[in-house]
């Protein structure tokens, strides 16, 4: 019998960075298509602007640093960052918002720290927080599902709205956000948070037109799209289950406990899981291999802590959704988590006092 000897690693499926990033982008497609279907072509306009800005910024900086920018761009990491940022901002946000945000993500958060593999924080989420703090009005002008609006803009209207603030027919963003009864509509998380602050119960808040039963119209479909893509990534072994599992479980437990304590003042776990960007964050943002924990036990802790912070900020903080803030908080804790969860070295022994020999 013939035996073939080979040194480790013995991984038969070898993927380079570009292949991994492309597979993550492919996994985003179901969610992006659903997001475009429910909230308009502005999603695709923002993605296009973000990708162009990311490629130009990355190429320019790498050229200044005398690096091979063609090879670096082909790893698709800048493009993935651009897409994640673009789908996180309102579809009809002014063009300069996504351009500034993408430039900040690539030039400051990524390249200033040395490029791919050296960034401490998730570039897309750091840029999102910068935009939210700097331009809160533009970053909170989310559209309701198109089925609820008086005017349903097409691709040309979306381009006009992003670059001029008005549709091709002259409708303003305020008019495009208005429902058939003329009232400006908010996101499900905004609506519930505002209603609770005004003394309404959770069930009374669900009477708003943007809800269908107990979930926001359009939002839960979009979350299902990203969930489908996330499960594909786990099956393809691009990511593992530890971070999304810990994040979703922690959110469900926190929301479930508070909902059981007082169902009038706290939203249900299902509402929290399928509204906002929790599913997107769990599978595509928190799993960033550079800024996340690197041990399996650490990944569970990292994900669970993000889920915990998201619930805390959503419930008692000033922002309805909190993925970006929670991810950045835990990015800072990664070195500590990895230090205390690193696996024991093979052959490791301890004395009676617990000190390694």
From TrEMBL:
Its EC number is 7.-.-.-. It is an enzyme of class 7 (translocase). It is a multi-pass membrane protein. Its cofactor is FMN. The modification FMN phosphoryl threonine is found at residue 187. GO terms for cellular component: plasma membrane. It is found in: Cell inner membrane. Keywords: Cell inner membrane, Cell membrane, Electron transport, Flavoprotein, FMN, Membrane, Phosphoprotein, Translocase, Transmembrane, Transmembrane helix, Transport. The chain crosses the membrane at residues 20-38, 44-61, 73-89, 120-139, 217-234, 241-260, 266-286, 298-316, 322-340. One of its GO terms (biological process) is transmembrane transport. Pfam families: NQR2_RnfD_RnfE. The keyword Lyase does not apply. InterPro entries: NqrB/RnfD, RnfD_bac. The keyword Electron transport applies. The complex is composed of six subunits: RnfA, RnfB, RnfC, RnfD, RnfE and RnfG. PANTHER family: ELECTRON TRANSPORT COMPLEX PROTEIN RNFD, ION-TRANSLOCATING OXIDOREDUCTASE COMPLEX SUBUNIT D. Part of a membrane-bound complex that couples electron transfer with translocation of ions across the membrane. Belongs to the NqrB/RnfD family. This is Ion-translocating oxidoreductase complex subunit D. The lineage of its organism: Bacteria, Pseudomonadati, Pseudomonadota, Gammaproteobacteria, Alteromonadales.
């Amino acid at each position: 019998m013939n035996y073939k000897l080979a040194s480790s690693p013995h991984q038969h499926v070898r993927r380079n960075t570009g292949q991994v990033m492309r597979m993550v982008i492919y996994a985003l497609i179901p969610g992006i298509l659903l997001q475009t279907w429910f909230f308009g072509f502005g999603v695709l306009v923002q993605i296009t602007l973000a990708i162009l800005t990311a490629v130009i910024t990355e190429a320019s900086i790498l050229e200044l640093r005398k690096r091979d920018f063609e090879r670096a761009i082909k790893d698709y990491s800048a493009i993935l960052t651009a897409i994640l940022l673009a789908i996180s901002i309102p579809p009809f946000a002014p063009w300069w918002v996504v351009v500034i945000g993408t430039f900040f993500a690539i030039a400051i958060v990524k390249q200033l720290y040395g490029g791919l593999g050296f960034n401490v924080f998730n570039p897309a989420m750091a840029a999102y927080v910068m935009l939210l703090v700097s331009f809160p009005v533009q970053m909170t002008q989310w559209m309701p599902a198109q089925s609820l609006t008086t005017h349903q803009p097409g691709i040309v209207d979306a381009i006009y709205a992003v670059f001029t603030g008005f549709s091709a027919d002259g409708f303003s963003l305020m008019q495009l956000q208005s429902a058939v009864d003329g009232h400006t509509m908010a996101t499900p998380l905004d609506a519930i948070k505002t209603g609770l602050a005004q003394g309404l119960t959770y069930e009374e808040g669900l009477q708003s037109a943007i809800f269908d039963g107990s979930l926001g119209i359009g939002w839960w479909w979009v979350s299902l799209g990203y969930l489908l893509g996330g499960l594909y990534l786990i099956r393809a072994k691009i990511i593992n289950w530890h971070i999304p599992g810990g994040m979703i479980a922690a959110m469900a437990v926190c929301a479930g406990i508070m909902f059981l304590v007082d169902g009038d003042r706290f939203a249900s776990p299902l509402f929290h899981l399928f509204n906002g960007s929790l599913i997107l964050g769990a599978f595509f943002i928190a799993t960033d291999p550079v800024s996340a924990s690197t041990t399996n036990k650490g990944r569970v802790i990292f994900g669970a802590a993000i889920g915990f912070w998201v619930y805390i900020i959503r419930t008692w903080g000033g922002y309805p959704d909190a993925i970006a803030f929670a991810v950045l908080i835990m990015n800072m804790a990664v070195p500590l988590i990895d230090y205390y969860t690193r696996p024991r070295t093979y052959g490791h022994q301890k004395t009676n006092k617990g000190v390694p020999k």
